[in-house]
Design goal:
Layout (H helix, E strand, L loop, with lengths): L1 E5 L17 E4 L9 H17 L4 E4 L6 H4 L5 H5 L4 E2 L3 E5 L2 E6 L2 E2 L8 E2 L5 H5 L7 E4 L9 E3 L5 E3 L3 H9 L6 E4 L12 E5 L2 E7 L17 E4 L1
Parallel strand pairs: 1-2, 2-3, 3-4, 6-9, 7-8, 9-12, 12-14
Antiparallel strand pairs: 1-15, 5-6, 10-11, 13-14
């Protein structure tokens, strides 16, 4: 199975170079920008039209904190299904023997964004991931994996979710891929790409496609290609 993983296109999806030899495309959230869900809706619908038109057999979508119109159900899961897109929101699907689970939920950051939860409330969500899962799709990263960002004091910190990392390590003998975005490249910090760690066979992919604070400046990545 050849998978194209993309995330955080922030309306720049039309500029992506679409591979012609992949079996599945997976999107990890933030196809849109405005926090106002009514302004957000047309951007999401534009993305759905583009995503559904891709000449790729399987298409999976997970929302992100910027996709507020989906959380408010101005755009519904049925809108994705009607276009042949598999929409995951704390749910699973099975494709050609691969068990895939996805969530848009991220640790709380700022006000007015979608699917934000307090960090101390995240553990229950990750514990709900079925133990037979091969691929976890989340909007945000596990802690310590391509998740460097600046805090309010201008210091670098690993800002991913430690409870998610704990779950990934627990599932390491089954889990093949963890796919996310949310934390972009910025200044001299490079988060986009794929990581592998010696203590687990799992591959971790950050597929953000634009730089932090420069969403309208164009793409800086075309996502990641992964083979299973």
């Amino acid at each position: 199975m050849k998978i194209w993983h993309i995330s955080d296109t922030h309306t720049m999806h039309g500029w992506l170079q679409v591979p012609t030899d992949v079996d599945m495309v997976i999107f990890s959230g933030d196809c849109s920008n405005p926090s106002n869900p009514y302004l957000n809706e047309p951007e999401v619908r534009n993305f759905i039209e583009w995503f559904s038109s891709l000449p790729i057999k399987y298409k999976i979508f997970v929302g992100g904190n910027h996709d507020t119109s989906i959380e408010k159900r101005l755009v519904t899961p049925a809108d994705f299904a009607s276009k042949g897109i598999i929409y995951l929101e704390n749910t699973s699907t099975c494709i050609e023997g691969l068990n895939i689970w996805g969530t848009p939920v991220t640790p709380e950051f700022g006000i007015g964004w979608a699917w934000n939860r307090k960090r101390d409330k995240m553990d229950k969500l990750w514990k709900s991931i079925p133990e037979n899962t091969d691929i976890v799709i989340s909007h945000g990263p596990p802690k310590g994996v391509r998740d460097l960002s600046f805090d309010r004091h201008g210091d670098l910190e690993f800002c991913g979710c430690s409870a998610l990392m704990k779950k990934c390590f627990k599932m390491r003998n089954q889990l093949k891929l963890v796919l996310f975005g949310h934390i972009h490249d910025m200044y001299d910090v490079h988060n986009q790409g794929v990581s592998h760690y010696s203590k687990t066979p799992t591959l971790f992919s950050n597929a953000t496609c634009v730089d932090d604070g420069k969403f309208d400046s164009g793409l800086t990545s075309f996502g990641n290609i992964l083979n299973l």
